[in-house]
Amino acid sequence: MTDHRDPADARLDELFGAWRAEIDEVPLPALVDPLRAVDVVIEAKRGNRGRVHRPPDGACTRPPGDAREETV
Fold it and tell me: Where is this region: Disordered (predicted)?
């Protein structure tokens, strides 16, 4: 069976294959410790009782009122 692909496509496949092999050689460390993340979320819920408070500098980052009521 003959390969009728465009030579540019074959070269691109070769380049991406080499790049992927190079990336796969180096293991990626965990970005987040799952146990620590769960502890942080539990502690945050305990401390704030699930409420979001205004930032201390008074910045208004949310629209006034409950924006969820306006969604359809």
Answer: 49-72
